[in-house]
TrEMBL record:
Residues 30-131 form the Acyl-CoA oxidase/dehydrogenase middle domain. The lineage of its organism: Eukaryota, Viridiplantae, Streptophyta, Embryophyta, Tracheophyta. Coiled coil: none annotated. Residues 377-552 form the Acyl-CoA oxidase C-terminal domain. This is Acyl-coenzyme A oxidase. Keywords: FAD, Fatty acid metabolism, Flavoprotein, Lipid metabolism, Oxidoreductase, Peroxisome. It is found in: Peroxisome. Gene3D superfamilies: Acyl-CoA dehydrogenase/oxidase, N-terminal domain, Butyryl-CoA Dehydrogenase, subunit A, domain 2, Butyryl-CoA Dehydrogenase, subunit A, domain 3. PANTHER family: ELECTRON TRANSPORT OXIDOREDUCTASE (PTHR10909), PEROXISOMAL ACYL-COENZYME A OXIDASE 1 (PTHR10909:SF250). It comes from Gossypium hirsutum. Belongs to the acyl-CoA oxidase family.
Amino acid sequence: MFIPAIEGQGTEEQKQKWLPMAHNMQIIGCYAQTELGHGSNVQGLETTATFDPQTDEFVIHSPTLTSSKWWPGGLGKVSTHAVVYARLRTDGQDYGVHGFIVQLRGLDDHSPLPGITVGDIGMKFGSGAYNSMDNGLLRFDHVRIPRNQMLMRLSQVTREGKYVQSDVPRQLVYGTMVYVRQIIVSEASCALSRAVCIATRYSAVRRQFGSENGGPETQVINYKTQQSRLFPLLASAYAFRFVGEWMKWLYIDVSKRLQANDFSTLPEVHACAAGLKSITTSATADAIEECRKLCGGHGYLSCSGLPELFAVYIPNCTYEGDNIVMLLQVARFLMKTISRLVSGKMPVGTAAYLGRVEHLMQCHCEVQRAEDWLKHSIILEAFEARSARMSVACAESLSRFSTPEEGFGEISADLVEAAVAHCQLIIVSKFIEKLQQDIPGKGVKTQLENLCNVYALSLLHKHLGHFVSTGCITPKQGALANEQLRSLYSQVRPNAIALVDAFNHTDHYLGSVLGCYDGNVYQKLYEEAWKSPLNDTVVPDGYDEYIRPLLKQHFRTARL
């Protein structure tokens, strides 16, 4: 975030000065925004940057304990510089939060500069995991920096201390957010595919029960209970892959529009990026843990690769926007979109379906047989109707409160569910759009169609209450969807291993004994056990002091 922040918020002169040094690693930068007392509420940050017209400098200061910068990655031990977000104060006024480039450590001996207290915040979740990142704490004691180290593309302070807004639209800042969040969505698919690859391969190797006449036991992957938990996760990995690819295109498109001062799609794009970041990371974190459970007791071993993957991944649910806060931003966008329909302003992009809200509020699902759920038009309309009806219901509820903010606070849980429905619709629609492209090989397309249907119908089954309670489908149609889902599992099963092999993850990358490509799981588990430091000795340290006295019933001398 250090470089994107300068690229998005720095002037051309500032970019020419700082970016070459950052790209060449002459300086190492971090992004110091989050504080001990404030994370999601950026406008509540307490660090101050007060302009001193006598010296043409800003004075960066941490006035309270809770104003300490807390969590920035790379800050604890490594970074020499930071983009610090602080409240700009000049001419007796507070102009809110702005970015400033601040040097933290000397470039010769790496020691903290005068007035700067910096360190690591300590151990985090897991034994290894994200602990390799030096998330840091940072406090300022009246640290002075030149005026030109305020990022001044969007606004600036003159030599005389006057605050001036530039002609550059402030909406350009959102371009950086979209960039970072589309990367996170793509990484969700990558992490999920790793977990699914491990669980699928191990499920094919593992056999339990079902032996007949002394024959082999049943492969765990052949049990419907295993398939109903595993195959929707496999489908999700593909779905997130495709929506991630689409988001890359979306970022390129919105960047071009922003450069041309076209902000027409920005609210929709920002809501889309926020919502998909939330949905994909939450689903992936839950899915990695589910994959661990799918691997039984062996999944709890460190050498399975899943505990470490889970511990490394779960911060995604919080950083770059807490997932619930992100969904509430999506909900605000949906409520604004619906309120503007009255004036005839038609929504665009992923919200375009709301322009057909009258039809979606009245339409009836045409499913009569289980196979009807294989029609993408029926799936899409069901998801559109659910999302539209949940959003309209929230809008109607909000209208009954004296103020929008009061209503937003009271029905925030309903708003989150409406936002989830909207985001799930986006992912389903992008999967369907992918299938409409020219996909080489009939067999490949058939398997992708199966995965698309598994993804959509498993979501429908999981959120059946919403689909039925909003009148989108009947209970009977919900039962038919579940019937078709069971049939789809049987179609995915013969190709499950090929579908995870297609991710092309090497054994080194997976880092898992259970997910090894050759399937020689038990031999590798046995070999891995002997690598434990506890096996360096036959008789454990402390035997004479603790264990032997107990065994010999010498309780008075036992140290336990």
